[in-house]
Design goal:
There is one protein chain. The chain is α/β, with parallel strands linked by helices and 549 residues long. A hairpin with a 2-residue loop joins strand 14 and strand 15. The radius of gyration is 24 Å and the shape is globular. The protein folds into three domains: 272 residues, inorganic pyrophosphatase (n-terminal core), CATH 3.90.1640; 114 residues, Diaminopimelate Epimerase, Chain A, domain 1, CATH 3.10.310; 98 residues, OB fold (Dihydrolipoamide Acetyltransferase, E2P).
Length: 549
């Protein structure tokens, strides 16, 4: 079964599924990594002030935590961090955040998960006499910042073959190289400092990689697998333990999916609604009690985020019926004065899923502002950053700034330009898509035999992972008897399905009940473990269900 599943994901030989650390790509092909490592090693040796400037999402938080912990373990005595409040300073190493950073008098600024687009911010840092080391994974624009070093696998000059590393992965590679440089200088032996084992930080790397939804190529699968193995053995940060606890996840069986749907969103909630420093402190602390308190705070923020998101999704759908009645509209771009910029990305993702169209959701940049900040989510095959770039080229001045990835991007526009932008976005999408790209197609791994409907199959599938973006978790399709259905929670459907005399539990999230007369259903599902009241049973996680005629 696994051979068939691997083959469908492009695996042609056994070496491609190796997950040992020895199979990680060498860092030598990462641009500027030697120059960056030498400068950071100098800063550690000379006790210079190092300031880490991160992004306000889970990738940024894990990157900051990784840098703080690893550099301190290497003997850095003056290392601090700064995360821009998205509502006050915006994204990245902006001139405003550099002015704030300058008050802390750093000798070196290290950006994590940002910086490749920070041309003006780096220029200002240079004027202040601050060396800037940029570590990033976002796609570069036409102009690059004049940084002391720029480490990014997606630069044109890069020969590093894993282009999909998360920001935390790039930071991990750099810090591993810093340790190497310090070892070569005999720094650890001379200072009588225990050389840190970089593997101890792989829990953070795994969490940030999964939470950022980057494609899980082999290099990323190795990083995530190794991090998960450490977490399951209890060799992890108190903060990650606490996040798993509030997310009601079992640490010993934690999966990549758990990190993506339970741990990552709680970290992200801090950056979306408040200040990511709460999440960073949760990841850094050595005190289990403090970790539990901070995780509880993050859990509360995540609940608030969910409530805001639900309201925004409902508002956005209503707006679509009002301003986009044309069912042939290919690019969705909506704004409402009630929208919260902290969750526009999530809402854009929801709209993308519902209508299978690329979607952009805008919110006010600040109260009374004439600027809108938007978050874009794309469909398979459509590079959303390229779409935005085409608009910027065709309509100079339309976009104040933009950046991101193929599947997700951020942008800013003037409020007065919104109607023109909506038309321009739809036009650009029309020019870039083919009709088949707009068809919502669910790809599965075929049927699962009745004899394979058991927990042993769940274990085998779990062992074949980690699964995620670009290495999709196995998804099966089948026909079942609908034995019973009932609504649980607000809008989830609890099912009992029949197959060859077996009764199998199922759960379908955000699924309305089927007609009471429905006897047979077609189901797309993932087999999973349901651990309730100490009893472990098979449960199908239903992705799609329809009544059969």
């Amino acid at each position: 079964m696994l051979d068939r599943i691997f083959s469908a994901r492009g695996i042609t030989h056994a070496a491609q599924i190796e997950r040992s650390l020895g199979n990680l790509l060498s860092p030598v092909d990462l641009p500027d990594i030697e120059r960056a490592a030498q400068r950071l090693a100098d800063a550690v040796e000379q006790d210079q002030k190092i300031l880490i400037v991160g992004d306000f999402d889970a990738d940024g938080a894990t990157s900051v935590a990784l840098c703080m912990l690893a550099l301190r373990a290497m003997g850095a005595g003056q290392v601090d961090y700064l995360v821009p409040n998205r509502f006050d300073y915006g994204y990245g190493l902006s001139p405003e955040i550099v002015q704030l950073a300058a008050t802390m008098t750093p000798d070196v600024i290290v950006t994590v998960d940002n910086g490749v687009a920070s041309v003006d911010g780096v220029a200002l840092a240079n004027e202040h006499g601050i060396d800037v080391i940029v570590t990033d994974h976002h796609l570069p624009g036409e102009n690059l910042p004049a940084a002391y070093a720029l480490v990014n696998p997606n630069l044109e000059s890069s020969t590093f073959t894993s282009k999909s590393m998360a920001g935390v992965g790039v930071a991990y590679y750099l810090l591993s190289w810093v340790r190497q440089v310090l070892r070569q200088r005999e720094y650890f032996s001379v200072r009588q400092i225990d050389e840190p084992n970089m593997a101890q930080y792989l829990d953070l790397v795994a969490l940030g990689t999964v939470a950022d939804v980057v494609p899980l190529d082999q290099n990323n699968r190795i990083l995530v697998h190794q991090g998960l193995q450490r977490i399951r053995r209890g060799m992890t940060r108190p903060g990650i333990m606490a996040l798993a606890r509030v997310g009601k996840r079992d640490l010993t069986t934690l999966s990549a999916s758990d990190m993506g749907f339970a741990l990552g969103p709680r970290l992200n909630a801090a950056g979306r609604l408040q200040d990511m420093s709460v999440g960073i402190r949760c990841l850094i602390t050595e005190d289990p009690k403090e970790a539990n308190q901070l995780a509880a705070e993050l859990d509360g923020l995540n609940q608030t985020r969910r409530e805001i998101e639900q309201d925004m999704v409902a508002d956005a759908q209503m707006i679509l019926t009002q301003i986009q009645p044309d069912p042939d509209e290919m690019g969705i771009a909506v704004y409402h004065e009630s929208f919260h910029q902290g969750v526009v990305g999530i809402v854009a993702g929801r709209l993308r899923e519902k209508f299978h169209r690329p979607a952009i959701v805008f919110a006010d940049a600040s109260e009374g502002s004439n600027e809108l900040k938007g978050s874009a989510r794309s469909i398979d095959g459509l590079n959303i950053r390229d779409v935005l770039d085409s608009i910027a080229t065709r309509l100079p001045g339309m976009l104040l700034k933009f950046g991101g990835h193929a599947m997700a991007a951020g942008l800013s526009i003037k409020r007065a330009h919104l109607p023109r932008f909506q038309k321009a976005f739809d036009k650009a999408v029309r020019a870039a898509v083919t009709p088949d790209m707009l068809d919502a197609v669910v790809l599965t791994d075929g049927t699962l035999a009745p004899q394979d409907m058991n927990l042993q199959t769940v274990d085998r599938l779990s062992a074949g992972g980690p699964w995620g973006n670009g290495f999709a978790e196995p998804l099966f399709a089948g026909e079942f008897q609908l034995v019973s259905q009932r609504v649980v929670g607000q809008d989830h459907l609890k099912l009992v399905l029949g197959l060859d005399g077996q009764l199998i539990d199922g759960i379908a999230f955000r699924q309305p009940p089927l007609e009471a007369s429905t006897a047979q259903v077609k189901v797309v599902y993932k087999p999973a473990l349901n651990d309730y009241a100490g009893q472990q049973t098979l449960q199908l996680m239903v992705e799609y269900i329809e009544a059969m005629s």
